[in-house]
Write a structure and sequence with these properties.
Belongs to the thioredoxin family. By secondary structure, the chain is of the alpha/beta class. It is about 35% helix and about 20% strand. The chain has a single domain, classed as Glutaredoxin.
Length: about 130
């Protein structure tokens, strides 16, 4: 991802990070499946979306907003209906990849993360 991207792996690290978010901060979060030793995610939708999201982050992300890449875990962890990323009241993820603005209605899910026009709107509109 872009320079300055924060990488987080797993739910515990995610929770520790969000505890430190200030009320006035803009934080964009990209949730994706974990990657193997070659750097490829087990999630085919994530593999397709990542280069498009990377390009949008490089082109549109503002300096005053944080961009956080969150690894939700392996396939078994994600597919568990009790996966905490699925049940957390602030994320309620149903698919990956998901791009969301923390504590905001702005959210792109699944194939929407592959759409350059939607990504532009996500990053440029309040």
């Amino acid at each position: 991802m872009a320079p300055g991207t924060i990488y987080i792996a797993g739910y515990d690290a995610f929770m520790k990070f969000v505890e430190g978010i200030k009320d006035n901060e803009t934080v964009n979060m990209y949730f994706s499946g974990s990657k193997d030793e070659r750097g490829s995610s087990w999630c085919p939708d994530c593999v397709r979306a990542e280069p498009v999201v990377k390009e949008a982050v490089a082109k549109y992300a503002s300096d005053d907003a944080k961009f956080v890449y969150i690894d939700v875990g392996d396939r078994a962890t994600w597919k568990d209906p009790k996966c905490p990323f699925r049940t957390n009241k602030n994320t309620y993820l149903s698919v990956i990849p998901t791009l969301l603005r923390w504590k905001s209605p702005q959210k792109l899910e699944g194939p929407q993360c592959e759409n350059p026009d939607l990504l532009e709107m996500f990053f440029t509109e309040d």
